[in-house]
Amino acid sequence: MSKAEKRSEIVHAALELIAENGFHGAPMAMIAERANVGAGTIYRYFENKDVLINGLCQDLEERMYPVILTGYSADSPLRDRFLHLGAALLRYFIGNPLDFRFLEQFHNSPYGVEHRRDKILGKNAGYNVFRELFQAGVSRQVMKDLPLVILFALAFGPLLAVARDHILNFITLDDDLIARTVEASWDGIRN
Amino acid sequence: MSKAEKRSEIVHAALELIAENGFHGAPMAMIAERANVGAGTIYRYFENKDVLINGLCQDLEERMYPVILTGYSADSPLRDRFLHLGAALLRYFIGNPLDFRFLEQFHNSPYGVEHRRDKILGKNAGYNVFRELFQAGVSRQVMKDLPLVILFALAFGPLLAVARDHILNFITLDDDLIARTVEASWDGIRN
Amino acid sequence: MSKAEKRSEIVHAALELIAENGFHGAPMAMIAERANVGAGTIYRYFENKDVLINGLCQDLEERMYPVILTGYSADSPLRDRFLHLGAALLRYFIGNPLDFRFLEQFHNSPYGVEHRRDKILGKNAGYNVFRELFQAGVSRQVMKDLPLVILFALAFGPLLAVARDHILNFITLDDDLIARTVEASWDGIRN
Amino acid sequence: MSKAEKRSEIVHAALELIAENGFHGAPMAMIAERANVGAGTIYRYFENKDVLINGLCQDLEERMYPVILTGYSADSPLRDRFLHLGAALLRYFIGNPLDFRFLEQFHNSPYGVEHRRDKILGKNAGYNVFRELFQAGVSRQVMKDLPLVILFALAFGPLLAVARDHILNFITLDDDLIARTVEASWDGIRN
DNA sequence: GATGAATGAGCGTTCATTCAT
DNA sequence: CATGAATGAACGCTCATTCAT
After folding, report:
1. Domains in chain B and their CATH numbers?
2. Optimal mutation site among B106, B170, B183, interface A, most CBs of chain A within 10 A
3. Single pTM value for the model
4. Is the pLDDT reported for residue C111 higher than 80?
């Protein structure tokens, strides 16, 4: 197993366990076992558990953004751009439930909050596609004149909630339901 | 200290610690200390830590529902009823950040999921005021014809997200902002 | 087993293991086992291993000083006082080899140095009997006019060395040899 | 880097780290790093860590004895010979505090005791200069008629103690103080 | 009934040693 | 030969739970 593969195995095992059982249910020894490496090996790739968890998040975003940005055109009308991103996000979460579950766990932790603070301050490139979209929407008066943070909440709050409901089997989303849900969340932010 | 008072002290101490520090930062011994009871005493009131945590949630709802239902009239127009509940919920969370922080921690745990499953299956009375409202909204075609679960997500997803943002100091909500946020979330669900 | 007894068992087990095997050979689990307590129990009596080790030292001094000061008279001639203390110290170490071995380990550690620094600054009562003796010796010109620290080294350096040699079976001290050794170390410091 | 150089780098790095941080603060990986060799390479030169540490001691003595024997004449009077060796030893330790710190760490370990046992049984050449000196002193009745082990303790106990005190900054030795200290220790052993 | 001392499994992490490259 | 990634036993410490008082 190459060095990159080993790192990947560790990351995968950690994400899987955290997604399935939460942070409590993912001790380092169990991550190591599932990754088929020794317990000490993880520490060659990640300084400690905190660093591993933050690495997981970064890893995930690097996998996720290319997917949801595929076919996205910054020249389309704002509504179309939002519908594309919303549906892509929802589909990504549904198709990658472990990633979604991990993100939920992550955002509910001290690191998650810190990470979010950085995002809102605009340090992160991936997020900026959303930020630009919403800033354009407000300035062109296509969207409601509300603080960006609230628009984010109106747009993504529902999408994350239905993704969770789908993954927990409270509902089964199909393409039609996804489209109507994203349209409804558009109604929440548009003027 | 009476039996009921002692139970109340325990519940209060536990909720406070979990809200402040997360589940990790709330060992039983610390809860006992803050509640001014012996560590063993907690086990007279709650079979184990899991049961305590579920008790906390139930306790919280019993305090919260009377507050948000104050002044609520089932005879008002659907829109008014929604705006009342939404704003009341948001104000409750902002005014009781510990309750909100606890709920967030709770919902992000195996118990939280189980609890939610019960809610959606309709076992819990408190939730039913929302259920009735949304069922009426759909049947009178005032709201979109979407599954209840999705309507819940559209309505409460944004409210919870902005409550979190406020409590984490990413934004400061005032009455005007609260009203406009709840109206925006109404736009998401109304026809 | 009473609380005081349990503490005593822990202290005894720890001192024994450290004396026999050094700090490396005295993990907390082994101390607990030898003391017939659970591993966690130690932490009810000592905040952590460092505190335990410092406690051991303090404990030891509280046992040792009364013994070596028995029959000691501050009114005797300086020479007699020194011979008394020197022989008493030597006898104590020979009679309590575990205490001696522990002290040697202790003084060769960061804590030991810190502890020694305090002693030399004069915070500790037990040591002061030596300090007074040497200060009197210098001022009455019975002892050499050297810094106190050097007099200590001249007086106790040999005593500790022969105690070690006896305990390691390089030599067997009897009362006669003890007396002549202490007299020789007196020759080192006297004028 | 030649084989001998590599060995030397390893020995130097190990001694430095152990002197600075104690055995705890000198893991093999850190020694390897400071020596600019691979971790596994150390095991080509030393079977394991224990052997390395013993090698360190031997190495040190090979560097130290030539220094303290410089200018030493076996034909001088016993007193002069002792004063020479004592002062040379003290100066060596003060001038090479890492060597001294290492020796102290070393002598306080199972290996140290074993090493000392060999010395006292007379296997080691370096030590013999002291042994010869003391044996001559006793037989010519210049020194006290005490077992050699005790004479060693009387002579070197104080010297090691003041070296430690100097290195730990409890006192600052100058040439005058060194001379008077060595003379005082001579008083301890001479008749 | 209430207590809190005792427990020990389990945690995150380290490091001497091995061995494939 | 030299390397350094991999290993896993062992460490200090925590904490949910029990039970003698």
Report:
1. 1-46 (1.10.10.60), 55-189 (1.10.357.10)
2. B170
3. 0.89
4. no
